[in-house]
Amino acid sequence: MRKHITALLLLFALPAFAQVAETEPVASGIVTGRVVCGDTNAPARFAKVFLKSVVPSKASDNPFSALAELVKDPDAPKKKLSAEDAAIQKQAKAAGAKLITGVMDMMVSTTTNADGIYTFTSVPAGTYYVHATVAGYIDPVADFTSEELTSTDAEIRKRVSAASLPTATISGAETARADLRLERGAAISGRVVYDDGSPASGWVIRALHPVTDSNDSELGRLGVDASDLDLIHMNEAGTIDDTGHFRIAGLHAGSYILRARFRGTAIGTSSLNPIVSNKESGLRGRSPLSNMMALHLDAYSGNALRLADAKPIPVRTGDERAGEEITIPLHSLHSLSGHVIAHADAHPVDSGTVEAECLDASGKPDPSPHYTAPINADGSFRFDYLPPATYKVKTAHAADATTLSTQHVFASLIAEEKTTHAYGNASATVTLSDADRTDLVLSVPEPADAAASAR
Q1: How confident is the model over 275-296, as pLDDT tens digits?
Q2: Rounded CA gap, 263 and 293, in Å?
Q3: What is the model's pTM?
Q4: Under CATH, what is the fold of the domain 186-454?
Q5: Where in the chain is the domain with CATH 2.60.40.10?
Q6: What helix, strand, coil percent values describe the chain, rounded to 5?
Q7: What is the pLDDT of residues 196-224, one digit of tens each?
Q8: Counting Cβ atoms within 10 Å, is residue 391 exposed (0-12), middle (13-18) or buried (19+)?
Q9: Which distant-in-sequence residues (6+ apart) come within 8 Å of 1 by Cβ?
C-alpha cells in the first residue's frame, strides 16, 4: 500500500518533477495564427488548437516512464512469465504506449480567443502539424493515425503530404504563423432505445473508424478496446440524453458504423466488495477491472449486437443524416453463470477470471463481444446480458488463494491475496439461444495435467 501511495504522490508532483529534470535552457519560438469557420468566415471562438511533432516521440519524452522507474521496488522478486503472460504483457505495453502517445499529443494545446487567435509560446525547435477541434467541424489531422503522421514510409508520406495539413517550423527564437480554415462536417443524429421504447440514457455512442494496429484485435482480452485509445476522434462521440437522442457531428465524408455502449460494475458488486491485489495471479488475475468491466453491453447501427453484422451509414460533407435509430433487444439477452472447481476433489476455486469469447458461424472467435468476469470467493462466476450466440468460456489464472491482509481506503476494501495453489485452464463451448444458463461447471486441472493434454 505504501508503494501505491508513493506512486500517487509522484503523479501529483509530476509538473515539479518535470521542471527539476529540465536543467539546460532550450531555444524556443512562438507559433501563432487564426482559426476561422469555413462556412461562415466567423472566428472559431474558444477552439482547442494542438501542436503535433512530425517526428515520432522518443521514449525519454514520456514522463510516466520515469515515474514508473522511481516507484519500482528493487527488492521485488522477478517472476518468470509464461509464454501466454509474456504475450499479454507485450500487448498491454503496446496499448499503454499508444494511449500515452495520444495523451501526450493532446496535452500540447491552447485555446483561441474571441477573434479566433491562438498563440503557443516556448515552442522547441522542430516542425509541427497545427490542427484544431471545434464541435461540428472537421479536424483534417483526424484522417491519419499518430503512426501515419510520423511515418517515414514513402507511400504514407505521399498521402499525408496530399492532405496539405498546416505545419509550422521553429528553428530558434522566431515566430511562425499557421492559419486554419475549418470546414463543417457531416452529422448523424437519432435515438437509442430499449425494445420497450424507453430511452437508453447515459449510454455512450460513437462513430467507429478502421483499426490499423495489428495488436488491436487482441486487446479485448485485456479489457481494452482499440476505439478507446482513439483520442484523435474524441469529438465523434457523445452521451445519449434522457430522451434517448444523440447527434454526432464533424464527420468526414464516408461510411460510419455507430456503436452504442454501456460499461458498469458487475451486478451485485460495489466498492464494499474487496478489491483484490495478488502479484502471483498474473496479468489477468482477479483485479478491480474484472468487476468494473463485467457489465458490458454494445449495440451497433442496423440494430446489430456484433460489429460484423453492423450496417454502415454513408454521409457526404455537410450532410445532416437524421432519424437513425438503434434498438437494444434487452429482453433477448441472457445471463450465463456457474462455478469453477478443482478437478481433483471438486472443491470451489476462489481466484482468477473467466472469459466468454463469442464465436461466429464458422466457429472462429468474433472479437467484438468479449467478456470477463471474476471468480468469486465461493467459486462462482456470472455474466449478465449476453447476446444469443455460441461462446467459448474459459478460465484464466484459476487458483486457490488466501487473504493476507485487508485495509479500508476511502470507501473501498483492499485485500492482499497470496496464491496457495495454481491450476491449469479449463474451457467449454456454450450456446445461448432463448434462456439463461446457470449451471456451467468448469473443472480446472493441475498444471502438469493441463500441459500434458496440450501436447
Answers
A1: 777 766 654 445 555 555 578 8
A2: 6
A3: 0.78
A4: Immunoglobulin-like (2.60.40)
A5: 2-72+94-182, 186-454
A6: 25, 40, 35
A7: 999 999 999 999 876 544 344 445 555 55
A8: buried
A9: 407, 409, 414
